[in-house]
Amino acid sequence: MKLIKDKKFLQNIAQYIDLTNTVGGGVVQPQVNMVKRKKETVLQVALPGVSPEQCQVILDKNQLTVMALHQSEQHPAMQIPLFHQNFVLPPYIDFSHLRVVHEGHELRVHLPYLPQGPRFLEIEQR
What we know:
This protein is mostly beta strands. It is about 15% helix and about 40% strand. It is elongated, with a radius of gyration of 20 Å.
């Protein structure tokens, strides 16, 4: 068995296979990590090879959608979804102060908590 030693060819064919798999109905699932901090939770999405221009983050009520689209060079009007993931956010998130940062190969969504946080009510016994 002969091994292919041309790294550029291997990188190009790997991207083509991944894109073809996505177009054919395959699922690309990015690595997602949630880091809880004292004043916020940070949603980290690993996006190797995805530029900030391809990313979209949409907030609709308490549902956060993170997605990336690939635009064909031959057909600029055609966009192919690379991935799409929904997150239901808890009610103690301050939706008016969300921040999204793309740095390196990672997209980070900062989800700050409301000043009070959740309030637990005392249950009376009768």
